[in-house]
User: Which sequence fits this backbone?
């Protein structure tokens, strides 16, 4: 992560969940400070915040002096904090372990470690080469114990010692001597660098860790803080099932979750294709669009699973799977909202053409959904500390909410039209006494079909609302409430909710002779000339007497004359 000419007082560097034996390796390769910052007495440093859930992992700055680094302790019991201050006079990074459960947190200095750049985001850190991995995680004894006193020392433990006395000696040898600071180096004038690692040694220290960089104004300064240049390289890793895993604790189960859901969608796509082939006499274009959607969903989940799989193994994504995932995700997102809008407007089920209102919704929804997907891709491939990360994340959330609200309008309009049609049919059946038996039966059938269609559209409206509420609100609540090692549940809940929405929608609008939409569509195609793009408001509201015209003879004019 690199920040150039940055005036922010707080930078979110990374967020990662650690199990026991997990490691956070930090290399501040360059910190460029303006000379004015020294004269103003500006304070620089890090805070390493541990919490059990994502919703409790942030700290608010002190409202009195607007600098969290001036606090000597934290009164919030839901988080634990380690402060790291830059002391430019002594050329050291001072460590202050204020929280009880982090009193023994092992922070050691790295003097010969090569770092790669930070990954795409906090949970996708780049790994160093294979030789470096083995060196990083070996509990070997350093040549000079004074250089790296935080590493465990087993040299005094005999391999033949198995009695109680020698076990006590081994326990004593394993005691970690905590460093009060790590040294700074100066690669240039007013430039500093340091590197250190944080080792999660026991289960008490497990949790979700948030690393923040702080730049606080000095007492002399009254304006905004001076600009800094900051370059940080980070490696984050866990040990799970005695293997290295570069995913956060809550993301370790995501590869099997995505792969399982992709297989489920693949089987569903095959079943849907078989159903279309066996019911080819009642197939509409929307059914093929639904098939394309489930295929794209399958591909998206598979590429996402492979992306996370290689990140877990190597610490960096395979570019091929990452690019394929983003391409299919972009197309799938736009196609999903287009399909919901088409079904909600009644396209091919109620009318073979879209009304002017429906077209306006498409003009608004599709570009917004593309923008939302682009914003998601940008945030997913950017570091948390980038200045534009929060901007694009806010754009994604805002545009996504607008799209979810916009797709409800076609469904509401269709329900209103169906209510009007059902009301008109009911009035004509009760108000016109002189009519043939066939005409009465025909109108009665229209009313029954309109009523069945109305009930189905209301059910679809409820399904869409529930889908939006679950995938946006419930999933977010799960994300901020569940423990750090179970955050994969919100992704699973999102995917299973999306899958169930697909299943219920496909079942409701499946091709078949028992579907009321199919009857209505074929009758209306015979009764109306849809070569022109009529507005549905005009058809239903402005010409109510033409709604139930029956073809009792070749021309149909006798029946029309009788009604007028």
Assistant:
């Amino acid at each position: 992560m690199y920040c150039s000419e940055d005036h922010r007082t707080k930078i979110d560097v990374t967020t990662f969940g650690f199990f026991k034996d997990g490691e956070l390796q930090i290399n501040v390769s360059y910190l460029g400070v303006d000379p004015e910052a020294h004269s103003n007495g500006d304070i620089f440093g890090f805070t390493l915040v541990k919490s059990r859930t994502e919703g409790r992992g942030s700290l608010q700055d002190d409202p009195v002096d607007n600098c969290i680094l001036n606090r000597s302790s934290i009164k919030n019991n839901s988080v634990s904090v380690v402060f790291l201050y830059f002391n430019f006079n002594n050329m050291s990074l001072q460590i202050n372990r204020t929280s009880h459960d982090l009193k023994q947190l092992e922070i050691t200095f790295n003097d010969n470690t090569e770092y790669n750049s930070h990954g795409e985001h906090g949970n996708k850190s780049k790994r160093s080469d294979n030789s470096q991995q083995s060196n990083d995680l070996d509990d070997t004894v350093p040549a000079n114990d004074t250089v790296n006193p935080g590493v465990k020392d087993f040299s005094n433990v005999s391999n033949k010692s198995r009695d109680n006395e020698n076990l006590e000696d081994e326990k004593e040898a394993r005691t970690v001597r905590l460093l009060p600071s790590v040294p700074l180096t100066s690669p240039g004038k007013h430039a500093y660098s340091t590197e250190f690692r944080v080792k999660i040694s026991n289960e008490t220290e497990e949790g979700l860790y948030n690393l923040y960089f702080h730049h606080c104004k000095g007492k002399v300064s009254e304006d905004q803080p001076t600009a800094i240049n900051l370059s940080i390289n980070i490696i984050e890793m866990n040990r799970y099932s005695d293997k290295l895993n570069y995913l956060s604790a809550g993301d370790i189960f995501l590869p099997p979750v995505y792969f399982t859901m992709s297989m489920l969608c693949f089987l569903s796509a095959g079943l849907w294709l078989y159903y279309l082939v066996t019911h080819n006499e009642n197939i509409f274009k929307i059914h093929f669009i639904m098939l394309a959607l489930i295929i794209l969903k399958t591909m998206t989940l598979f590429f996402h699973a492979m992306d996370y799989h290689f990140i877990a193994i190597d610490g960096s994504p395979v570019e091929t799977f990452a690019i394929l995932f983003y391409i299919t995700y972009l197309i799938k997102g736009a196609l999903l909202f287009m399909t919901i809008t088409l079904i909600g407007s009644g396209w091919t089920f109620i009318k073979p053409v879209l009304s002017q209102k429906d077209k306006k919704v498409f003009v608004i929804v599709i570009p917004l959904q593309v923008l939302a997907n682009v914003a998601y891709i940008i945030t997913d491939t950017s570091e948390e500390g980038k200045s534009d990360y929060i901007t694009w994340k806010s754009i994604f959330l805002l545009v996504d909410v607008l799209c979810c609200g916009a797709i409800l309008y076609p469904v509401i309009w269709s329900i209103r039209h169906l209510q009007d049609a059902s009301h008109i049919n009911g009035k004509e059946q009760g108000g016109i006494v002189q009519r043939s038996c066939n005409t009465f039966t025909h109108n009665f059938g229209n009313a029954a079909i309109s009523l069945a269609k109305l009930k189905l559209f209301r059910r679809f409206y409820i399904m869409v609302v529930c889908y939006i509420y679950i995938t946006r609100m419930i999933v977010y609540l799960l994300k901020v409430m569940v423990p750090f090692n179970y955050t994969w549940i919100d992704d699973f809940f999102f995917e299973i909710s999306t899958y169930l929405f697909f299943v219920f929608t496909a079942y409701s609008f499946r091709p078949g002779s028992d579907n009321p939409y199919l009857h209505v569509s074929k009758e209306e195609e015979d009764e109306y000339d849809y070569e022109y793009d009529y507005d549905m408001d005009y058809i239903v509201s402005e010409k109510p007497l033409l709604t139930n015209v029956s073809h009792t003879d070749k021309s149909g004019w006798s029946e029309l004359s009788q009604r007028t």
Summary: Residues 253 and 488 are 6 Å apart (CA to CA).
